[in-house]
Amino acid sequence: MSISVSMTVNGKAVSGKVEARTLLVQFLRENLSMTGTHVGCDTSQCGACVVHVDGQSVKSCTMLAVQAEGAKVMTIEGLAPSADKLHPMQEAFRDNHALQCGFCTPGMVMSAVDMVKRHNYQLDEATVRRELEGNLCRCTGYHNIVKAILAAAPAMKAAGV
Amino acid sequence: MTAAPTGIGARVKRTEDQRFLTGRGRYVDDLALARPTYAYFLRSPHAHAKIRSIDTAAAAAMPGVVRIFTGKDTAEAKVGSLICGWVVKDKDGNPHKAPGHPPIAVDTVRYVGDTVAMVVAETASQARDAAEAIKVDYQVQPACVDLARALDKGAAQVHPEAPGNLCYDWEIGVKADVEAAFAKAAHVTKLDLVNNRLIPNAMEPRAAAADYDAGTGQYTLWSTSQNPHVLRLILSAFVLGIPEHKLRVVAPDVGGGFGSKIFCYADETLVVWAAPRVGRPIKWTAERNESFQTDAHGRDHVTHAELALDKDGKFLALKVETIANMGSYLSTFSTAVPTYLYATLLAGQYTTPLIYANVKAAFTHTAPVDAYRGAGRPEATFVIESIVSKAAAELKIDPAELRRRNFIPSTAFPYQTPVALQYDSGNYPPIIDEATKVSDYKGFEGRRAEAKSRGKLRGIGFSSYIEACGLAPSQVIGQLGGGVGQWEAAQIRFNPTGNVQVLTGSHSHGQGHETTFAQIVSDKLGVPLEQIEVVHGDTATTPFGMGSYGSRSLAVGGSAIMKAADKIIAKGKKIAAHLLEASVADIAFENGTFKVAGTDKAVPLGQVVFAAYVPHNYPITEVEPGMDENAFYDPANFVYPAGTQVCEVEIDPETGTTEIVSFTAIDDFGNIINPMIVEGQVHGGIVQGVGQALLENAVYDKSSGQLISGSFMDYTMPRADDVPSFKVGYKVTPCPHNPLGVKGCGEAGAIAAPAAVMNAVRDALGPLGVRDVPMPATPLAVWQTIQGAQRKAAE
Asked: Is A138 in contact with B726 (Cβ distance < 8 A)?
């Protein structure tokens, strides 16, 4: 049994046929071939699949594709303003070596952008660490991720994003 | 070597980051294949059982099912056993027991997760649904899970070929000499340790995809591998019999490895084998629970150690008895880990003149155990650094001072240890001096008192580690039983337009080789960084190499690149001599330009390269055209990074919660190519070590053999708020035997950190009369230890 689903992903109207059990992350990866969003676990712990749904960060493995019907979804592929310009959070991750293997990175970046906005661009180290509770990284030891997010907060404010 | 803005020593931003930050990395599961099928592996729910029968009829009739394979199919097709590539000889010179490891269990399952059947279907969900419909009639058998009891009489037996579950009983050192030294000792410190079992948990689950081209007979395997050439070699020569030139292995972007992706696994073997039988490409990606169950686990030792000291606190001798868990089957390098990568490191940074170690490797009904970040060296460091700190506490000698008293002096290098290794270089006292300074060791007692006034227990712990990495002279590896060479290969290929491809047999899965290796070439040949492309991870395009593990990529792979660059320069000089009408002996090369010494005549490398590809004005009778050089580098010795970590903790005695309040790591990695990347390696390593010390534990139920810690909800991965920011620094003694003067940095953090953290926890609880706490020191373990100490004090 398949169900039609339509949503906006990175500003583009998309639709497809899914099973009722199809997760949003499966829809993104398999139906849309947008493989930037990753799956690192099956218990909604790791956060590699975080995307924004209607402006809020969501673990896309915890949401059915049909639940995103009509929603505005933004994935890591849609974050940078243009092909040659990165979002300040992406820039901060690169400047601070906040990624190694890159697998957790899309989820980390999407979580971090949402975190900065929810805290109105005002963050301290303890808050960043606490807020990263839902994102696992095995490579960096978090040190440089925390640094990057703290550096990105004022940069995002300055850029108005 | 001068530090150019993009050369050696520069904090160059990583070139690979652009694709990872924009969602354009290409991992195995991202691969789009035409007309793919999907595999799902049915796994044993039992730790030990006989398979009476398997009924696949109902499953085969499920929607979308293409094929189902069982152990009967692979046995009939004569699929080989998965191999262990390192032969360890026991005390009597006999090789270790090597029971077969069929990729799919034939009549017996030996751990929870053992492969029972492979379902191939049109979609992953259909494959999974069908697997649930397979009926397996198991006759459940008693399981052997408890490592400490695995070698006891009456323990359930894992393999008939290994009576008493003993894989090998191995020793190093002369026991009688060590005993004689103990007899004369002024003090003996004794220690019992369990080195807890860990699950690597790279964030990208293992994955494999295979395709077979019936027209050419060519197989392609895309795998999450740290060493695609070695994987191809094993699959070709030992397991599947596919001629090596007919199998291409591609390891594209790989999301972390930490050792767990070195090995040849059943799953990837089976997708290759099944691809021609299905006639379409097959994809498989592990679910995280499969990663927990089937990735090779790490550590898992039970150890008794004793250290003999003289009246001045000088170490006289060390003896160590270890039981090491091999799990149910021998993984690819499993046998080497608790022997040649463990006991040979037991001298640590110290002059201990006599060392004896006995290691018994045991089979149990658990997942295979193999190399995990550090592989044997963290286990050795945990033994040494725990017992040294315990001796210091017993003798009331400052732990930093006891270490200093026993350090190998800087004048003693090269230093021959009593356990086979010869350390090439090092200078340990300045490292611990710097570590005590950065960590404000002097001010610690004040901080302890202040914490006490708040009802908290504060402790400080040292860990001075040594590591032997950058494996290593191939001849030595062969003598020790290793089945492969340990050199590395590189190719520097200039294109006619002057840009460069650097092809390496190393593999990057987070370490940043694409940047570091390009920095080396840029520095050496004067080519701008953006004109250099590092190519790795594909047996069809890169030279045969050994891959990346054991902190070897830069020390061995980087050295091969240096050798290839030397060949480029040597060839370029001949061409330049012709173009400049000078003799080759007069040509010098610097900053990308060939010059005639003492004149202003010069020709840039780019022009020389162009001449080599368009050899119109060219010494064609003496020099071949083209500019493309290969090199193989076989190291003269291991490299020996060393360092000291200082960890400071605060424990809440009411809850048993340990907070790391400060963590300092001072390392000697030799010369450093990119400090930004090296620091990242240290941070990540430390957190894996902290995870082992405080959080992570792979637990099997002792009677059923079920993996209790089988998900991220049950197995505590370190999170951002479990750790602080770190203070890291360097001291440099260049490696004397490789052309870059580099030592490895990938594993150091994980090697040293467990002892640093545990020594801090022990120190914090010391005032309560506590000498040891089980690892991981979870809040429960710490709280129970405190309760036990208080009960004892009240008695």
From this structure: no
Q: Report the amino acid identity of residue B323.
A: I
CA distance B4 to B431: 27
Q: Is B725 on the interface with A (CB under 8 A)?
A: yes
pLDDT digits (tens, 9 = 90+) for B6-40: 899 999 999 999 999 999 999 999 999 999 999 99
- What is the pTM for the complete model shown? 0.97
Q: Say if A75 is an interface residue toward chain B (CB within 8 Å).
A: yes
Listing DSSP states for B702-738 in one string gives TTT--BSS-STTTS----GGGS---EEEE-----SSS
Residues lower than pLDDT 70 in chain B: 1-4
The CA-to-CA distance between both ends of chain A, in Å, stands at: 41
Q: Which CATH number fits domain A88-159: 1.10.443.10, 1.10.150.120, 3.40.50.300, 3.20.110.10?
A: 1.10.150.120
How many CB atoms within 10 Å of residue B449?
A: 10
Per DSSP bridges, beta strands B727-730 and B657-668 are parallel
The pLDDT tens digits of the residues spanning B151-204 come to 999 999 999 999 999 999 999 999 999 999 999 999 999 999 999 999 999 999
- Dihedral angle computed from the Cα positions of residues A23, A24, A26 and A32, in that order, rounded to the nearest 10 degrees: 150
Indicate yes or no: CB of B720 within 8 angstroms of CB of A128.
yes
| Chain A residues with CB-CB distance to B510 below 8 A | 100-102, 139
Q: Specify the DSSP element, H or E, that contains B446.
A: helix B444-453
Put simply, whether B205 touches A (Cβ < 8 Å) is: yes
Nearest to B254 among A43, A101, A137 (CB): A101
Q: Could you read off the pLDDT of B491-540 as tens digits, one per residue?
A: 999 999 999 999 999 999 999 999 999 999 999 999 999 999 999 999 99
Nearest alpha carbon to residue A112 among A146, A62, A70, A68: A146
Domain A3-78 coded CATH 3.40.50.720: no
Overall domain count for chain B: 3
